[in-house]
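Hypothesis: this fold can be encoded by more than one sequence.
Test: take the structure tokens below, design a sequence, compare later.
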């Protein structure tokens, strides 16, 4: 594990004062929301770079968001009464509107409160939390606020359940939570907590006219070792993705609770086996589970979230939404298009605002594809594939008052060999880092840095993905108590190459 680093006391004190001020402002504005209304003016940088992606690129730009945030509706239940009595603030403490205000402050365009379930929680969501969400949408219109929950998935750990934005969204969530969430029945129903019930849930979601999204949270938090899994297993991911490939689309590459070390805790809350560079082992290990799923040709994406409950300056282990981790989606500022971007992998993720934009494209003889997309090449002719990586560094300071710099960018490729007969497989032996780029290897073009690399003689289906870091680590090391601000990474989702 990494050694604990000594923090600069002056910088640490400045950061603490800044974040305490933010926390106080957010709570004050939430309390005064009926008076303040939508006139609250926090900065929200919206980068309108016109991406090179195909499709409706003229109206799409990278929009940062967070699909895993908790409000005071992650509470507790008094089960001595029938029906149980819900009490707000038992786990997370901030009103929905406070989270939205802080998301806006830290540059997010979209966000989602995903509160814990529990006995009869489907009614709490419908009758108490949803009206507060509607109020928050009015008060903070600059942030698109999705409706959904942290689904207590049958037989697995928690998952995002994101509902499409429409007039019956509250009823849609109520139907899914009341029918399938394992903790919703009272008295408890052990029959809810089976993998068969999870698959039934995914098939029901797939059959809905407005399709939700399901993304696994902190997938290895219960894993006792490297490649030894806990509540979430490779087999369950495969079975769920097979049942509903356009619903069950990925897991958190970087889990929340990243501020844990600032209060002497574990990064991500991973107390058994640690994260690596803030990323779950399923993502951070080259040739690991993520690569195994991609090597089967699955469209399986990674995201990064805050899992915000209580800010670290108030004794918690969390950053505000967008303060440290961001999920960037190529989309218009539109509920449907952001959800489409999440569903189809137009995503890159980063921590500490190490960079502002990231574009990865693969091209061959005039054909081009970007993250989440596929390019088809003809192996009867020239089969070289050109990879272009473009990124924008941060122009200014991040939320910690730092000016982070990219020290290295890695290009990672793997072969796509088809579905594995081993449902428990968590490796792709064809995956490797094919090139590492330092500052001398990229050129400046406007306010972007550009890297070009040629993959020679591509003769089989493959994918390419990119990661970068502020560190000098060849591979992300297991995390200890170092400051998360000193250990920053970004990851793209893959671009696919199909050989005809």
């Amino acid at each position: 594990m990494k050694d604990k680093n000594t923090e600069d006391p002056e910088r640490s004190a400045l950061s603490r004062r800044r974040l305490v001020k933010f926390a106080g402002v957010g709570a004050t504005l939430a309390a005064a929301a009926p008076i303040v209304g939508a006139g609250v003016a926090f900065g929200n940088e919206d980068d309108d770079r016109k991406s090179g992606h195909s499709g409706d690129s003229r109206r799409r730009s990278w929009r940062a968001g967070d699909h895993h945030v908790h409000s005071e509706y992650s509470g507790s239940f008094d089960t001595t009464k029938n029906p149980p009595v819900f009490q707000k603030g038992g786990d997370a403490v901030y009103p929905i509107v406070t989270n939205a205000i802080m998301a806006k402050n830290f540059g997010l365009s979209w966000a989602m409160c995903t509160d814990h379930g529990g006995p009869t929680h489907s009614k709490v969501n419908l009758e108490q939390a949803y009206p507060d969400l509607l109020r928050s949408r009015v008060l903070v219109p600059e942030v698109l606020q999705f409706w959904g929950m942290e689904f207590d998935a049958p037989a697995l750990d928690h998952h995002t359940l994101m509902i499409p934005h429409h007039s019956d969204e509250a009823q849609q969530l109520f139907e899914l939570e009341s029918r399938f969430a394992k903790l919703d029945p009272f008295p408890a129903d052990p029959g809810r907590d089976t993998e068969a019930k999870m698959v039934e849930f995914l098939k029901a979601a797939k059959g809905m006219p407005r399709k939700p999204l399901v993304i696994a949270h902190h997938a290895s938090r219960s894993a006792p070792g490297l490649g030894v899994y806990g509540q979430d297993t490779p087999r369950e991911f495969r079975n769920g993705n097979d049942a509903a490939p356009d619903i069950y689309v990925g897991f958190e590459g970087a889990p929340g609770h990243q501020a844990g070390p600032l209060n002497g805790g574990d990064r991500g809350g991973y107390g058994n086996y640690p994260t690596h560079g803030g990323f779950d082992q399923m993502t951070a290990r080259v040739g690991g589970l993520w690569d195994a799923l991609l090597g089967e040709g699955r469209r399986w994406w990674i995201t990064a979230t805050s899992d915000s409950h209580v800010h670290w300056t108030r004794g918690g282990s969390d950053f505000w939404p967008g303060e440290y981790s961001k999920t960037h989606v190529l989309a218009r500022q539109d509920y449907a298009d952001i959800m489409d971007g999440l569903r189809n992998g137009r995503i890159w993720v980063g921590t500490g605002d190490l960079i502002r934009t990231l574009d990865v494209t693969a091209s061959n003889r005039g054909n081009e594809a970007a993250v989440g997309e596929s390019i088809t090449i003809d192996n009867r002719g020239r089969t070289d594939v050109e990879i272009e990586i473009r990124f924008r560094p941060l122009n200014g300071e991040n939320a910690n008052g730092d000016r982070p710099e990219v020290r290295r960018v890695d290009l990672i490729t793997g072969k796509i060999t088809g579905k594995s007969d081993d449902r428990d497989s968590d490796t792709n032996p064809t995956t490797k880092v094919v090139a590492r780029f330092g500052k001398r290897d990229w050129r400046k073009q406007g306010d972007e840095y550009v890297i070009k690399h040629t993959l020679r003689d591509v003769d089989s289906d493959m994918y390419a993905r990119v990661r970068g870091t502020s560190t000098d680590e060849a591979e992300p090391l297991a995390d200890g108590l170092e400051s998360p601000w000193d250990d920053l990474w970004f990851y793209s989702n893959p671009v696919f190459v199909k050989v005809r």
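The chain is about 20% helix and 25% strand. The mean pLDDT is 91.
Hypothesis status: open.
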